[in-house]
Amino acid sequence: MFFKKRGWKAIALAGALTMSLAACGSEEAGTDDGAGAADDGTSDDGAATESQETYNWQFVTEEVQGQVQYEYAAEFADLINEKSDGQINIDVFEFGALGSEVDQVEQLQNGIVEFAIISPGFTGGMVAEGQVFALQFLFPDDQEVTQEILNTSEALHTHLSGMYEAHNIKPLAYFTEGAMQWTGSNELRTPADFEGFKMRVQESPLIMRSYEAYGADPSPLSWSELYTSLDRGVVDGQENPIFFIEDASFHEVQDHMTISNHNNYVAMSTVNPDFYNGLPDDIRALIDETVEEMQPRVFEMQAEMNEELLDSIINNTDNPTEVIELTEEEREAFRELALPVRDFFRDEVVGDEGREMLELLEEEIAAHE
Ligand code: 6CS
């Protein structure tokens, strides 16, 4: 695996903090039972009394320091630590420390980690309905409106979340990491530019289908291999929000970037449901309250990063990237090809429940437009 700027970074676990908590905890839910069983998520100091449970949890992300998911998890961990007067400690892992994106999903499902940020693109083979986020031109262009829908949608919070829970993944929140843009070794302005284009995608059948609809030749790849693959011409291009393109230095090995805003990069903060359900009510309430607080914070965070790092790409004279912005007419040509993929999702990818979810989501989106 290769990360251009930082190399392979494994995060050393911070020493387990010893804490005492006024609330009573449950032994099976990552608490300190005083037995010093560090490998089952407990801390090793031994709480003085049952009413002084301590908690030591792990939170894994698909990104590295300075990127949205990691900074979200770090801030979430700090907030929880503060609110609990230091009695809940969360160790945050950068991507790579615990394996691939798919490994991380399994760790969450098995309770090896308590929390994870997951991109639905990596669970497409398991929760087909989660691929709804791969449908290009579905959500409004206005990022604030999109985030409002992600915060309040019954289709997502009731229907889709239930489908994830059936697979032992409990989504706590959905958030955008920004509008996605294309980078390429050639200019990407019209669908014809995608003809035979080797497009790197996440491992989701529907994302692949979306690029096949443009005539491209999609190939699934972890982002850890993407810089090198772009550099060596193994793939010709990729999609991501601007902050990620810049921070992972993809622009340095791509001559062109297209501001297409063809989709949002949506991520979910998730928790292992058995762990979560086994927590005392007040601890669960603390988590819920903090998840809610994080929603405006992560929106602000991604907006700032995406804006600043666009300037950084434009002003990079050492590795110049030609940046173009599609006109509405140019976007329309892609939208027309993307619409039948929505029918494919409805008719071939999901069952009745998934169809109902999409219909409801479309109604919710229409109500916001
Ligand atoms: O392209 C990817 O696969 C990565 N992109 C983002 C914005 N976050 C993590 C993800 O794995």
From TrEMBL:
PANTHER family: C4-DICARBOXYLATE-BINDING PROTEIN DCTB, PTHR33376. The lineage of its organism: Bacteria, Bacillati, Bacillota, Bacilli, Bacillales. This is DctP family TRAP transporter solute-binding subunit. Belongs to the bacterial solute-binding protein 7 family. The keyword Manganese does not apply. InterPro entries: DctP_fam (IPR018389), TRAP_DctP (IPR004682), TRAP_DctP_sf (IPR038404). Pfam families: DctP. Keywords: Signal, Transport. Residues 28-51 are annotated as: Disordered. It comes from the Bacteria. The keyword Signal applies. Residues 1-25 form the signal peptide. Residues 28-50 have a biased composition (Low complexity). Gene3D superfamilies: Bacterial extracellular solute-binding protein, family 7 (3.40.190.170). It comes from Halalkalibacter kiskunsagensis.
